[in-house]
């Protein structure tokens, strides 16, 4: 829905408004886009409602949804684009004492993902708690080397997420691209990459487009949000997502860029705007 349609919706009769709300947006689709539940914050939508509106507005994926809800996404033609893998933000791969339990969980989730057409599973470094990056990288590599062949056989990519430790996740270890570059180089698998969260990376290091171009080979998935505030894209934000999306498309990216912001404005209007900005 564009601005003109939104104004028309406000002035329409209930029946006409419903017709306008159900119009399907046509996208170029050069960059596949997804959503998360956060994009619908402030609404009373069920997951079925969210999936229906996301598909109508031109999204093709839905991130961070567990297997119980995959049929709901698929009913609306959406791919569950990023599913649970193993670990949490606080307790992740950087500690060897976590490895035995996480390996069992990761292998089970790789099997489920492969059986259901889910391309990616998420994992985390864990918090530092005094650990330096060299030791953390060594421990993450140790774990990932145990499961990479399984991921390769199943055709599912394990994605470690880049998060900021400055604002949202104090003490999180993987908060710089050098960490990922070294980890992925040492694991050396096409099925072990990163989820490059642009919002988090902007807070920690900035230089987004140059970083994407330099490290594109280790990036399997992207998340978006406006900075500062982690809200929808508008004139108050410092990130130019149209330029970022164009750079990603120009590199031949075939995965998904998924939106992970919390809207301050009308959720559907904001989502339509975000999808339009990144539809290069």
Please give the count of helices. Answer: 11
CATH class, named Alpha Beta
Global geometry: globular
Radius of gyration (CA) equals 19 Å
Q: Estimate nothing, just give the exact number of structural domains.
A: 1
Strand order of the largest sheet: 1-2-3-4-5-6-7-8
Structure report:
With 280 residues, the protein is an alpha/beta fold. The protein has a single domain, classed as TIM Barrel, CATH 3.20.20. Helix content is 42%, strand content 14%. The protein is built from 11 helices and 8 strands. Strands 1-2-3-4-5-6-7-8 form an 8-stranded parallel beta barrel, surrounded by 6 helices. Helix 5 (99-115) runs parallel beside helix 6. The protein is globular and about 50 Å long. The two termini are 17 Å apart.
In short:
This protein is α/β, with parallel strands linked by helices. It has a single domain (27-277), classed as Divalent-metal-dependent TIM barrel enzymes (TIM Barrel).
List the defining traits of the structure above.
alpha/beta, disordered N terminus, 11 helices, TIM Barrel, 280 residues, eight-stranded parallel barrel
């Amino acid at each position: 829905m564009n601005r003109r349609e939104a104004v028309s919706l406000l002035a329409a009769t209930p029946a006409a408004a419903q017709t306008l709300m159900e119009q399907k947006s046509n996208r170029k689709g050069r960059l596949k886009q997804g959503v998360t539940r956060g994009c619908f914050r402030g609404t009373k939508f069920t997951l079925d409602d969210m999936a229906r509106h996301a598909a109508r507005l031109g999204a093709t994926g839905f991130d961070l949804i567990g297997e119980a809800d995959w049929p709901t996404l698929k009913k609306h033609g959406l791919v569950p684009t990023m599913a649970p893998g193993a670990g949490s933000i606080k307790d992740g791969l950087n500690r060897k004492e976590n490895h035995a339990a996480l390996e069992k969980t990761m292998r089970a989730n790789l099997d489920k993902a492969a059986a259901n057409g889910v391309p990616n599973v998420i994992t985390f470094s864990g918090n530092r708690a005094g650990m330096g990056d060299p030791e953390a990288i060594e421990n993450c590599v140790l774990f990932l080397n145990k499961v990479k062949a399984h991921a390769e056989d199943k055709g599912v990519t394990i994605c470690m997420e880049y998060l900021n430790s400055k604002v949202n996740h104090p003490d999180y270890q993987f908060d710089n691209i050098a960490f990922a570059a070294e980890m992925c180089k040492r694991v050396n698998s096409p099925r072990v990459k990163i989820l490059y969260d642009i919002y988090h990376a902007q807070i920690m290091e900035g230089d987004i487009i140059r970083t994407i171009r330099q490290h594109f080979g280790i990036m399997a998935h992207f998340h978006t949000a406006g900075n500062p505030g982690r809200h929808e894209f508008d004139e108050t934000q410092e990130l130019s997502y149209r330029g970022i999306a164009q750079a990603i498309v120009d590199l031949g990216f075939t995965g998904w860029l998924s939106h992970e912001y919390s809207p301050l404005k009308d959720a559907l209007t904001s989502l339509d705007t975000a999808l339009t900005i990144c539809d290069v």
